[in-house]
């Protein structure tokens, strides 16, 4: 179990790094919304994957936050609360938002993505017993 906990901690550290980048970018003089959205999505993806690793649930390589959340909910019904946050919206920010020709997130999108990521972090870490 200690190996699993260490792997979970590594995923959480990476997720926290992504969340930190998103928060810092929001405070830059030149804010870049798509960068904030991307790192918020990456944080959420990693928090959910950390939870799945803790639960020893296999998952495929994906950026689909809805798919990951559904797997998490199968293990812990308390995570159903996250469905109200509309985290499925974040999946778009994993790839498409980084390239020209697609919808360009604005500052409001970035603030929403960051809030979602902070809420996911709080609930996942509570359910893992880390908070």
Q: Characteristics of this structure?
A:
globular; 65% helix; 131 residues
Structural notes for this entry:
The chain is mainly α. Helices cover 65% and strands 0% of the residues. The protein is built from five helices and no strands. It has helices at residues 2-27, 33-54, 65-75, 91-94, 107-128. Helix 1 runs antiparallel to helix 5 (107-128) and helix 2 runs parallel beside helix 5. It is globular and about 45 Å long. The two termini are 19 Å apart. The relative contact order is 0.19. The mean pLDDT is 94.
Q: Short description, anyone?
A:
With 131 residues, this protein is mainly α. The protein is built from 5 helices and no strands.
Q: Counting H and I runs of at least 4 residues, what is the number of helices?
A: 5
Radius of gyration: 14 Å
Cα separation of the termini: 19 Å
**Stretches with pLDDT under 50, minimum 5 residues:** none
Label the overall shape.
globular
- Overall pLDDT, averaged? 94
């Amino acid at each position: 179990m200690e190996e699993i906990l260490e792997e979970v901690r590594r995923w959480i550290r990476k997720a926290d790094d992504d969340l930190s980048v998103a928060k810092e970018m929001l405070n830059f003089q030149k804010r870049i919304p798509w960068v904030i959205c991307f790192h918020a999505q990456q944080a959420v993806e990693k928090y959910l994957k950390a939870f799945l690793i803790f639960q020893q649930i296999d998952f495929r390589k994906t950026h689909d936050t809805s798919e990951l959340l559904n797997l998490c909910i199968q293990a812990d019904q308390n995570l159903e609360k996250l469905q109200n946050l509309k985290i499925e919206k974040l999946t778009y920010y994993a790839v498409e938002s980084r390239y020209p020709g697609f919808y360009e997130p604005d500052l409001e999108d970035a603030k929403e993505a960051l809030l979602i990521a902070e809420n996911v972090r709080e609930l996942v870490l509570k359910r893992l017993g880390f908070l």
